[in-house]
Design brief:
It is a single chain. This protein is mostly helical. The chain is built from 7 helices and no strands. It has one domain. Helices cover 71% and strands 0% of the residues. It is globular.
Length: 156
């Protein structure tokens, strides 16, 4: 999802997925490669480069790149995460008929974490694969915990 240096998305979905996963769109082993590459990424920014490339392609094309024309890159990233979260929340609302904002808040926090760690140039590429996976999962879970705490604080 993090395409800060690209001005526009010139590749097709199939090319994008192949570049991210190393496996053709729908190809055998695509899920395994996505999980291996994303969880084993040496930075939170790189985690998102590999996570769910089909969703990332459309978020980049219809959210990040248009937002980047109006806002700074860092804000466009956070807003793109918020939009992704809102779309996930919308699916929950449609399925449960209950209003939900948890994923929007959670994803917004993950966007802010990504921007912060990227600006601070924090990487963990030298750590073993398992540790990188735990760090990436830990950042996701920490973001979720913060989102839950924020909702508890607001709800009183």
């Amino acid at each position: 999802m993090f395409l800060a240096k690209s001005k526009q998305l010139k590749t097709s979905l199939a090319q994008y997925v192949k570049r991210r996963n190393g496996v053709p769109l729908g190809g055998k082993g695509a899920l395994r490669e996505m999980l291996y590459r994303s969880l084993g990424a040496g930075s939170f920014q790189d985690f998102w480069k590999f996570w769910n490339p089909i969703w990332s392609y459309y978020l980049a094309k219809y959210s990040f790149l248009p937002l980047k024309k109006i806002f700074p890159v860092w804000l466009s990233i956070i807003l793109t995460f918020a939009i992704s979260g809102a779309l996930h929340d919308l699916a929950i609302v449609l399925l449960t008929q209950k209003l939900s904002f948890i994923i929007t808040i959670w994803f917004s926090i993950m966007g802010a974490v990504l921007v912060s760690l990227s600006r601070l140039k924090i990487t963990y590429t030298t750590f073993p694969l398992v540790i990188r996976g735990l760090i990436n999962l830990g950042l996701i879970l920490l973001s979720y915990g913060i989102a839950k705490l924020l909702l508890i604080a607001v709800d009183g």
